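Progress note, sequence design subtask.
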């Protein structure tokens, strides 16, 4: 079973739909804690480390073989927690794919608190792959207010417009899982990546492996196998 830790309920149907399409035999169990993101935005991700560890512990107690954190702001905190099972952040496979495309990466986010963790993640994946990288960031102004107001179409449109304004990049990363619908709206010729589908694939693989292999040390990121060249 793969447990998912969310900071917004909008992710639940998204990941259920992806499971139905790509991993029909995978059992998912969702936990939503919006307060984690609220506090992390105010005091920083480290401020919720204890609560994240507690949430992971409950998931393991409920039988999780692996846990996937779908919030980019707290993903690093979750990934570093010693939970006894593999803990993955949803955006790491996306970051690995980005640095494989080219060295000029632009990170687009609707939340300021997501920018710095995503930059660190992309740079970490570049080091692991032995590739050069230059990361720029761009905020989708006004997009998050639309998300909080429940205007999902307006949110996606604002994110897409921001992505379409990017120049001089080899690849654009949509930093938050909630931004994935904008990927279908962009008109730019620059590749635009989102995290839900590759993140769930990595989580599904981790859950399957955990049932048959010894548990790895949990203070290290779960690396996603990638093609060389």
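Output:
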């Amino acid at each position: 079973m793969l447990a998912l830790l969310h900071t917004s309920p909008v992710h639940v149907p998204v990941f259920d739909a992806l499971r139905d399409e790509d991993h029909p035999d995978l059992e998912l169990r969702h936990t939503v804690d919006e307060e984690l993101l609220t506090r992390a935005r105010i005091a920083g991700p480290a401020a919720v480390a204890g609560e994240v560890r507690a949430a992971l512990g409950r998931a393991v107690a409920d039988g999780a073989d692996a846990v996937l954190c779908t919030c980019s702001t707290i993903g690093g905190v979750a990934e570093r927690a010693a939970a006894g099972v593999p803990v993955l952040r949803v955006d790491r496979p996306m970051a690995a794919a980005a640095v494989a495309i080219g060295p000029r990466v632009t990170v687009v986010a609707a939340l300021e608190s997501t920018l710095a963790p995503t930059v660190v993640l992309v740079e970490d994946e570049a080091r692991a792959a032995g590739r050069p990288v230059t990361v720029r960031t761009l905020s989708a102004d006004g997009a998050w207010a639309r998300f909080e107001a429940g205007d999902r179409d307006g949110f996606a449109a604002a994110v897409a417009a921001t992505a379409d304004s990017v120049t001089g990049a080899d690849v654009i990363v949509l930093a938050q899982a909630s931004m994935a619908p904008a990927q279908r709206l962009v008109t730019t010729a620059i590749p635009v990546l989102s995290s839900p589908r590759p993140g769930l694939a990595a989580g599904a693989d981790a859950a399957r492996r955990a049932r048959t292999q010894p548990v790895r040390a949990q203070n290290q990121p779960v690396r996603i196998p990638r093609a060389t060249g």
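The two ends are 34 Å apart (CA to CA). Work on this subtask will continue into the next period as scheduled.
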